[in-house]
Every structure is written in C-alpha cells, then in structure tokens.
Design brief:
mainly alpha; Growth Hormone, Chain: A; two-stranded antiparallel sheet; 17 helices; membrane; transmembrane
C-alpha cells in the first residue's frame, strides 16, 4: 500500500504543471508570437476543454486495456505533449496543449476509481493526499515558470522541462503499478449504460465540479495577467499564483477531515467556496497591499473546493464501478463547463472589460457553485439495489 500512495503522489504531481506553467509566461508568448488576448484565452481554454472531452473516454479505455495500462498510456502522451510545447512554434504549442489536456483528462478520471478500489474505506483521506500532490505540482509550475524561462533561455524550454516529471511518473508507474482485481459480479450486474444521466445526484456533483473548476482554471490561466494589470511585475504576479497553489496543500489535506465533522458535507463545501470568492475579490478589487491575505484565502478556498469535489465522487459512489462512471461524468461535463470560464475572461479582456466586470462574473460562478454544493453535499450515495438497478440511497 505505501507503493500505491507513492504512485498517486507522483501521478498527482503531473496533473497541473501543464496548466499552471503557461500563464506566468503568457505575456512573453504574446510578445514573441503576436498572439491576441482572444488567442491567449483560447490557449488557456483548450486544455480545460480537452479535460472534459477526453474524460469520458477513460472508462472505455480502462475496460479494454485495464486501468493500469490506460494510465501508462496517458502518462506517455502527457510527456510527449509537454515536450512538444518546447518548440516555441505557435501551432505546436496549441497541439501540445490539446494533447496535454487530453492526457490529464484520462489520468484525472481514472484516479478516483483506482483509489476507491485500492482503499475503499479510506478513499476520502487518500483523495486529499493526491489532491495535495496535485496542488504541489500546480505551485511548482506557477512558481518556477519564469525562473526556468530565464535560466534555460526561453519560455519554450521552460514549458518542455515539465516532461521530465511525467517521464519519472511513467517509469515508476510501470514498475510498481497495482494489479487489476475484478469486483464481485453482483456489484456491476444490471447497471444500465449511461444510467447516471438519469440521476439528479450525479448532475449535482457534476455542477459542483464544473463551477469550482471554472474558478480554478480562471486563476491558473489569468491571475498573473490580471495582477499585472494592477501594477505588479510578472515575477511577483507569478509568485502570487504559486503561493496560492501552495496554500492549497493545507486545504487539500484538511478538507476531508473537515467534511467528517458534520452530518453531511454542505457546511464544509460552502466554507471553502466562500473563501475562494472572497480571496479573488480581494485580489482584484481590494487594496493591493492586502494581496497576500487574498492569496491565502484563495488558496484555502480553491484547495478545499477541489478536494471536496473529488471526495464527493468517492462518497457518493457505492463501489468503484460507480465511482469510475461518476468521475467520468463529473469531470467530462464539468470540465466542458469549466472551459467557458478562461475563454470568457479572454473575450472580456479583448473587448476592454475592466476588473470590476470580471469580478462580477466570478461572483456569479461562485453562486452557482454554492447552489450545487447545497444539493450535492447532502448525505446520499448512488448504489446498486438487489435487482441490479442504479438507485440513490
């Protein structure tokens, strides 16, 4: 079991640098390639959209190749995609970004089901552990992007350097990956295909995943750019993002325990969503001198929100098969919804919108997340009855 935990940490480290390493050097990319704000918005949106498009393919691939081999394949694609982005050619940058988003979508969808299978009674705590690794990867991507660009001689080499961590995870996974253990036939018998689409609880979890992810990817894609508009230098703006993601480590570990304190998860989710939007509004509209308080609030809120969204996939699933399907649905539809966030910011900046207008949009997204949280946070789960039918208990 320690080997499995180590593998989850290594894989988790690779699920954010492809996203967080881009925004600190986005202005440099625009200067070198004459990319417009709308084009930059598309560049930050594409990986999130691909997360949603390719997440539903993960169960299909896992059924045919096995989840372990599927994850190996996805890590190999991720390493290649990150290397491709190092060419500093705009078309290859877009292509590598699409491939990276697709690979991360498959990896991220498989992890909740693997955790539910390997650690059925500790799935919520283990989710916090690999979410912590995911946050650490995001922080490293944001914080090291500018220093690596300066040290290696360009933003392309900085982006490509993250392929080394993906290769490390691939080698470790191939050597230590767990063996497939089929579940009891009774646990999957009679489960109708796409039955989750008929369950309101599944859509509530999906709505929460999508809305909180929209805020998260707006931060990953645009926070350094928005803070530069408030007068900060590019290095400090990138550092703000890195510190925010580092703070997420605390929330990622603490939120699963916080969720156990009440009768259900609603108070915990509302608390972290409130912290997220408070931090964002403080950063974009509050005094610049208070930016560090905003960064801490934002990190605690977003780390907790994402950890809770992933934890709910495990808690609302009766077995690993349902967890895999719910993960596919929540991350598939959820990330397609989330992709609208970064794209909207790019469009708004392209037409000259100010930070006040952007702040209003962020508040509306947070309200949507809170509404979904009130429904998804109730103590219920999707399960299979004695007749093999999917039900909500």
């Amino acid at each position: 079991m320690p080997a499995f935990i180590l593998l989850m940490i290594l894989v988790g480290l690779n699920l954010r640098p492809a996203l967080s390493s881009l925004s600190p050097v986005l202005n440099r990319i625009q200067d070198d390639t004459a990319l417009t704000a709308l084009g930059a918005g598309a560049l930050t949106t594409l990986p999130v959209l691909c997360l949603g498009i390719f997440a539903p393919t993960a169960p299909w691939l896992a059924k045919r190749l096995g989840p372990e081999r599927t994850l190996s394949f996805a890590l190999a694609i991720l390493a290649f995609a990150l290397l491709l982005r190092g060419s500093e050619n705009l078309w290859l940058l877009y292509g590598g970004t699409v491939l990276a988003g697709a690979a991360i979508g498959v990896c991220g969808t498989l992890l909740p089901a693997l955790v539910k299978r390997e650690l059925p009674k500790g799935a919520d705590v283990m989710t916090g552990v690999y979410t912590m690794a995911l946050c650490l990867g995001g922080a490293l991507g944001a914080g090291l992007s500018i220093p690596l660009s300066d040290a290696l001689g360009g933003w392309g080499r900085s982006l490509a350097s993250w392929s080394l961590i993906a290769l490390l995870a691939l080698v470790a996974w191939r050597r230590m990956m767990p063996q497939t253990r089929p579940e009891k036939p009774a646990s999957t018998a009679g489960t109708p295909r796409l039955a989750l689409w008929r369950e309101p609880l599944a859509w509530q979890v999906t709505g929460l995943m999508g809305s909180q992810s929209s805020l998260a990817y707006i931060v990953f894609g645009w926070l350094p750019v928005l803070m530069q508009r408030r007068g900060l230098g590019e290095a400090e703006a990138g550092s703000l993002l890195a510190i925010s993601v580092m703070v997420q480590l605390i929330a990622a570990l603490g939120t699963p325990w916080l969720a156990r304190l009440g009768r259900d998860q609603r108070p915990a989710i509302l608390l972290v969503i409130g912290a997220s939007i408070s931090g964002l509004l403080l950063l974009l509209s509050g005094p610049v001198a208070w930016r560090w308080w905003g960064v801490v609030l934002l990190g605690l809120g977003q780390g907790g929100s994402f950890s809770m969204a992933l934890t709910l996939i495990a808690l609302r699933s009766g077995n690993s098969r349902i967890a895999g399907k719910l993960s596919s649905m929540a991350q598939g539809f959820g990330y397609c919804l989330a992709a609208l966030g970064p794209l909207s910011i790019g469009i708004m900046l392209d037409i000259g919108a100010g930070l006040t207008t952007i702040s209003i949009l962020l508040a509306l997204i947070a309200m949507l997340a809170a509404g979904c949280a009130m429904m998804a946070g109730r103590n219920r789960r999707l399960d299979i009855d004695d007749n093999g039918h999917l039900i909500t208990r």
